[in-house]
Amino acid sequence: MEQLIKTIVQPLVDFPEEVSVIADESANRIVYKLSVHPSDIGKVIGKQGSVAKAIRAIVYSAASSHRMKKTYVDILD
């Protein structure tokens, strides 16, 4: 799932080498923490969060077919 997030985000940003995804897994949920260069945060979030919503929708859809845990995507500052 980390590779899917990187594949989606890297073409959107100016510094693709600084895109990192860390998975934090507990008993009933998985949180993917997305970190990008500070100047790229706006590009990943988009106007009114539209890009972030689209990224989350794709990840949630892909994760629901693979795992029985709740999946979240956090964009870190």
Automatic annotation (TrEMBL):
<dbReference type="GO" id="GO:0008360">
    <property type="term" value="P:regulation of cell shape"/>
</dbReference>
<keyword id="KW-0143">Chaperone</keyword>
<comment type="similarity">
    <text>Belongs to the KhpA RNA-binding protein family.</text>
</comment>
<comment type="function">
    <text>A probable RNA chaperone. Forms a complex with KhpB which binds to cellular RNA and controls its expression. Plays a role in peptidoglycan (PG) homeostasis and cell length regulation.</text>
</comment>
<dbReference type="GO" id="GO:0003723">
    <property type="term" value="F:RNA binding"/>
</dbReference>
<comment type="subunit">
    <text>Forms a complex with KhpB.</text>
</comment>
<dbReference type="Pfam" id="PF13083">
    <property type="entry name" value="KH_KhpA-B"/>
</dbReference>
<dbReference type="InterPro" id="IPR015946">
    <property type="entry name" value="KH_dom-like_a/b"/>
</dbReference>
<dbReference type="InterPro" id="IPR009019">
    <property type="entry name" value="KH_sf_prok-type"/>
</dbReference>
<keyword id="KW-0694">RNA-binding</keyword>
<dbReference type="GO" id="GO:0009252">
    <property type="term" value="P:peptidoglycan biosynthetic process"/>
</dbReference>
<keyword id="KW-0133">Cell shape</keyword>
<dbReference type="GO" id="GO:0071555">
    <property type="term" value="P:cell wall organization"/>
</dbReference>
<keyword id="KW-0963">Cytoplasm</keyword>
<keyword id="KW-0961">Cell wall biogenesis/degradation</keyword>
<protein>
    <recommendedName>
        <fullName>RNA-binding protein KhpA</fullName>
    </recommendedName>
</protein>
<dbReference type="GO" id="GO:0005737">
    <property type="term" value="C:cytoplasm"/>
</dbReference>
<dbReference type="InterPro" id="IPR020627">
    <property type="entry name" value="KhpA"/>
</dbReference>
